[in-house]
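Chapter summary example.
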Amino acid sequence: MNGIVLNITETSGIIVDDDGERYTFEINEVKQGSLKNGSKVNFVNNDGLAKDIYLLNSANIASDTTETISKGILKGASVATSTGALIKEKIDSYTNGSQIQKMGLIAAFGAVIVILFFNVSDILTIVGFAIEMFALYNLGIIKKNMSFFTYRIKAIISFAIAMFILNSIVMNFFLIVSGENLIFNGFKAVLLIVAIIYSIYSIFKAYTQLGKIFYNKLFIISAWLYIAALISPIVFILMKDLPLALDAPYYLVFGHYIILIIAYIKIKDDKVEENYINND
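The structure predicted for these 280 residues follows.
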């Protein structure tokens, strides 16, 4: 048993174990080490008397602690490895080893991260975009057609620019008090329209390619929701409904990503038809 010396005199002492039970001992029962109050010891319980007492030195304690930590790390690594192997097995079973389907699942996973953390965590949103773009990049390599990946990147960048300009316009909507400010905001409105038009063009090119390559019309539906998200701010600004001008795009982008996630998951090798690839 293990315990701690609670009190010790020249001839006897008291040990308390991990459960709070107390044991008295004679000093001649100490077989190894010099005990003091607080010393951690190992002993044999003999009807409430501590016998064959040995001091557990700090090196032993450290060794035990290190061993416990090592076992915990190894156990955690084993669980992680087993979980990773199980996930890989499930993915392989679902995709039948198809790299195209695996990339579709990875793209869907990235899109899920984006939809969960969009407008909540910029870092995680960027991570989600990066995962999705990684999958699209690999799909482009596999299909030897990088155009949908390139247009998808352009659509993301132009959308981000459009949202930045929109927020700037909305913040200054009621602060137009001079001709100079009016001209400046008019210039920003023109830039907003250009960014939106280019984003619409890019997303349609990207999703048209994906839809044709993988025979999946959900990509086109997703593109229409994306377009609605980009157009809605202009419509509501013209209607002088600023709350909707800010909120509507996010709801529509949410719907866009729901459809997009489903489209990615439904990517199948048997739906590929090479003569539908339209190289730009």
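To summarize the output: The chain has seven helices and six strands.
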